[in-house]
Sequence to fold (125 residues):
Amino acid sequence: MPSPTDRRYTKEHEWVRVQDGLGTVGITDYAQDQLGDIVYVDLPSVGAQVKQLEKLGEIESVKAVSDLYSPVSGEVVEVNQGVNDRPELVNQSPYEDGWLVRVRLADPAELDNLLTAAQYDELIA
Fold:
């Protein structure tokens, strides 16, 4: 499945889709497939400051616990409570219902440091 072209990607398999200065962050379909069944997600609180490519939280699957990295710097303005209650949403819908947090971008120019969908697809090929 080709990666959605309306977002940017990290080499660590997170994505961000920006609308009106807010970045919605999640993990890619490739990442959720590699992790297997996701059983727990540890996310920052609303108001937390995150920095680009630094640890944002953790995601736990039946196989392993992995760090999550923020694709952008800024302030967390929303956490997906659905994922807290039902972590399997990340497996079922990584690009839609399984998003993790929304971040008010501190510096939109940081998006230039991220991969396009084509570059990400090449990375995971």
Q: What stands out?
A: The mean pLDDT is 97. The chain has four helices and nine strands. The domain at 14-124 is CATH 2.40.50.100 (OB fold (Dihydrolipoamide Acetyltransferase, E2P)).
